[in-house]
Amino acid sequence: MDQQHRKLRNELVINLDGGNAHMSFEEAVADFPIELINSIFPEIHYSPWHFLEHMRISQWDILQFIINPKHVSPDWPSGYRPRVNELSDKRKWETTVSLFKKDLCSLQEIASDQSIDLFSPIAHAPEYTVFRELLTASSHNSYHIGEFAILRQALKAWPKDRPYLTG
Questions:
Q1: To 10 degrees, the CA torsion angle through 142, 109, 54, 92?
Q2: d(Cα 34, Cα 22) in Å, to the nearest integer?
Q3: How many angstroms separate the CA atoms of 89 and 110, rounded?
Q4: Does residue 59 contact residue 103 with C-beta atoms inside 8 Å?
Q5: Are 103 and 58 in contact (CB under 8 A)?
Q6: Do residues 26 and 93 touch, judged by C-beta distance below 8 A?
Q7: Cβ pair 137, 107 in contact under 8 A
Q8: Which of 38, 72, 63 is nearest to 157 (CA)?
Q9: What is the pTM (predicted TM-score) of this model?
Q10: Are strands 121-122 and 125-129 parallel, antiparallel or unpaired?
Q11: Which residues are within 8 A (CB) of 89 and not within 5 positions of it... i.e. 6 or more apart?
Q12: Of 3, 48, 58, 90, which is the most buried if we count CB atoms within 10 A?
């Protein structure tokens, strides 16, 4: 493998993690107050947990699409978010965070795996490549982490030791 391909794989791993100009998932969710996980603002309709669960489901779907030829994606759009009135608790929150991190690691492993040709068509979906799917996961995560960070700022839920986030 040449130097350019190694650099590309490294950049994919970094971007999946929220690197460069993006906040990481870890930073976005760190020390989030459990008592605010079900908070909803007028006209938004989704809580912080709803955002994270949507990210988890979407990322899981992308991972499964890459690795499992028999995978069937959830119905769109209802299968990609919890119901608007569904509430979370500490256990559900922690499960969402944990599963998101687990699947993120799996995507990063795929990006790093030199035996995987990132640009060849996926065998069970020849109109797609692994590269495309990794970019989709990265951009989708970055978009929603940004939304989550703004929601967290509106909730005044950033720790006081992070003045650059609290305003």
A1: -120
A2: 24
A3: 32
A4: yes
A5: no
A6: no
A7: yes
A8: 38
A9: 0.94
A10: antiparallel
A11: none
A12: 48
Q: Report d(CA 98, CA 100) in Å as an integer.
A: 5
CA dist., res. 137 & res. 115, Å (int): 20
CA angle at residue 17 from 14 to 22, to 5 degrees? 85
Query: Taking the CB of residue 156, how many other CB atoms lie within 10 A of it?
Result: 11
Q: Where are the beta strands (DSSP E) in the chain?
A: 121-122, 125-129
Based on its alpha-carbon atoms, the radius of gyration of the chain, rounded to whole angstroms, reads: 17
Q: How far apart are CA 69 and CA 124, in angstroms?
A: 6
CA dihedral (113, 62, 57, 147) positive or negative? positive
Per-residue confidence in pLDDT tens, the chain, 167 aa = 588 889 999 999 999 988 777 899 999 999 999 999 999 988 888 999 999 999 999 999 999 999 999 999 999 999 999 998 999 999 999 999 999 999 999 999 999 999 999 999 999 999 999 999 999 999 999 999 999 999 999 999 998 887 666 65
pLDDT of residue 164: 64
Task: Name the 3-class secondary structure at 128.
Answer: strand
